[in-house]
């Protein structure tokens, strides 16, 4: 099967959804970097160091918030995670 090339609009950023850091078959686990769930095209962009560092930051903050609120990571409200990351100076595209 031929691989279809996907391109972002010129100057268009992309985001990595929180759900990509949550394994489908493991409860209570978060992943970041090369372990995340992505299509082949998306994976080629997210495996770079800067993106991996941002995912690690998000996974760490999500883990801390999950423990503080006694919630499994998949039940953590994304808005809560985004707010905590922004308070720490993270850039969210």
Walkthrough of the structure:
The model has no long low-confidence stretch (mean pLDDT about 85). The protein has about 90 residues and is mainly alpha-helical. Helix content is about 40%, strand content about 0%. It is globular and about 40 Å long. The longest helix is centred in the middle third of the chain and has 20 residues, at about 50-70.
N→C terminal distance: 32 Å
Largest sheet, strands/sense/barrel: none
Percent helix among the residues?
Answer: 25-40%
* Poorly predicted ranges: none
Secondary structure category: mainly alpha
Q: What's the number of helices?
A: 3
Outline: globular
Strand count: 0
Report the order of strands and helices: HHH
Q: Mean pLDDT score, rounded? A: 85
Strand content: under 5%
Compute the gyration radius: what is it?
A: 14 Å
List the helices and strands and how they pair.
Layout: H1 40-46, H2 49-68, H3 78-87
List key phrases describing it:
about 90 residues; mainly alpha; 3 helices; globular
Briefly summarize what is shown:
The chain has 93 residues and is mostly helical.
């Amino acid at each position: 099967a031929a691989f279809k090339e996907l391109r972002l609009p010129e100057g268009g950023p992309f985001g990595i959804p929180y759900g990509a850091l949550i394994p489908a078959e493991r409860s209570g686990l978060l992943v970041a970097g090369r372990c995340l769930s992505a299509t082949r095209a998306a994976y080629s962009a997210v495996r770079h160091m800067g993106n991996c560092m941002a995912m690690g930051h998000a996974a760490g903050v999500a883990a801390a918030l999950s423990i503080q609120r006694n919630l499994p990571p998949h039940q953590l409200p994304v808005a809560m995670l985004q707010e905590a990351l922004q308070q720490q100076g993270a850039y969210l595209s």
